[in-house]
Queue: 2 jobs
Job 1
Amino acid sequence: MVQNFNAILKSKTQLTETIFEFKYSVPENFTFIPGEFVSIKVGGNVRRSYTILEVQDGLMTLIIDVCPGGAGSLYFQNLKVNDESSILGPLGLFRCQETNFDKVFIATGTGIVPFVPMIKDLKQKGFGMANNCITVYFGARFFKDDIAYKYLKNLDKEDFIQYITCLTREESNEREYKKGRVSQIVPSEDHDWLNTEFYLCGNREMIEEMQMILRGKGAEKIYFEKY
Ligand SMILES: Cc1cc2nc3c(=O)[nH]c(=O)nc-3n(C[C@H](O)[C@H](O)[C@H](O)COP(=O)(O)OP(=O)(O)OC[C@H]3O[C@@H](n4cnc5c(N)ncnc54)[C@H](O)[C@@H]3O)c2cc1C
């Protein structure tokens, strides 16, 4: 059920140069379906949308990049612990399909956020038992920008989940990664393109480019959320 409430910010943690993790206290009955977002007042009647990473023990976690520099970025850059925000949600129709098809998740930046609860949910529901698998491609410039690893590293230990970091500018070999953009790496990988679901989330350009590439490979089951 969509709710309209004021929430207190309980913690703000810096993850990268421009990306922060925010934890808000939310009403006890506040729940969400993986893929849903909240709309937050960032000044006057201006609102911005932010995908829900997690709701646990009365706290809702959001991951926000302040790099774009508009009203939303400024609001979250300045927001302090114990400040209050006006929140509307959960909203949205971006969903993980309840099927047994292999699933490929492709994200850049905070586009990884909807995929974290989706993958946790799939795992809880026994996905992987039917010999099906999940592949995550996360695109960034350097290891230090890889926010996805923080939230998915434990899940990666599951046999049916493969996590591939695609880095464009990294030179070190701190852990395994593939060099290049997701749009270069994904099409060179081996997938059953027709019988796999592809989920895309991130900036508009990446999604439009990836959609064209995937369709060119024969993929038909493509689901996306443009930020
Ligand atoms: C359904 C949905 C869910 C979203 N979830 C998240 C989330 O979980 N975390 C998050 O950080 N953002 C998320 N966004 C994006 C967010 O709503 C804002 O658009 C973003 O924070 C920028 O707002 P702004 O007011 O700072 O910049 P704006 O005033 O909106 O834009 C400022 C400038 O930056 C450009 N720009 C806007 N967004 C981006 C971007 N992502 N990358 C590069 N350039 C950009 C604009 O074209 C413009 O030139 C989501 C968007 C949607 C639609």
Job 2
Amino acid sequence: MTKRYIIGIDLGGTNLRIALFGLGFKIIDRKNLNTANFGQKERLIAAIVDSVNNIIENNRLIKNNILGVGLGLPGPIDVNRGVVHFFPNIPGWCEVNLKKILEKNLKLQVFMDNDANLMALAEYKLGAAKGSKNAVCLTLGTGVGGGIIIEGNLYRGSSFTAGEIGHMPINERGPECNCGGFACLESYIGNRRIMREAQRIFKRDEVSLEELSRMAYHNNKKAARIWSGVGERLGVALVSVVNLLNPDCIVIGGGLANAGRILFDKVEETILTRAMIVQARAVKVRKAKLGNGAGTIGAAILVKENIKMKK
Ligand SMILES: [Zn+2]
């Protein structure tokens, strides 16, 4: 019998990650490229096609060994048709039928979804939310993304764009957000906002998030106050999520999750003191387990689930 593999791709504003997996999601090979090197849409698509072909050849495989290719993409996607509506941080993409283009060029089956959804799928199947039934997963970085698992399935919503926790307003009025709304959670706890706050408080031109975590860890009161503020604002947003969805698990990943206990303690405390008592007791807050690999793993899981469904 032919041995089968899956290719998982995670396209981000910064990195293009390609990984080859066995059917049990064991990683066999991987490659990271810099998204910015490819500029226009056509060059980026060509880079994806080349990377898939290369990873197959480099591992002495043929197309027949590949069950399918999964892609995690940084924007709203029509999952059924495989159409990219647009990418907020990569210009030049508007209603692109990426599935069709890639399937024609690769002669392989292609499946795609939003990157935060695939991170949630990966954490649910193999990471911090394993064994959970209802989970909410967040990635904290420049943007704040989210994915929702309900009764063991990814909840996508009516146009596949559910889970945008970063764009839940947490105030009546507040800063304008690039989504067109204002007072979005992302404008309060996105990387840029935290760094601006740190620069103001420490009166310095640059304070990195790593430095800010380190300072808090060594009991710097000002740094601790910044993280506790971030934890509280995030906690307040999650109180709404907990009351609305009654999840048993909330997974927090992305760069900011590395701030560790100082952030997680405040999030947990805020949920415990402000969410409704039954919901608050049911939920565990956990740090994501799969790190940067979550996107490609989620993409591989997506392929396996789709192909299984069709059989
Ligand atoms: Zn927004």
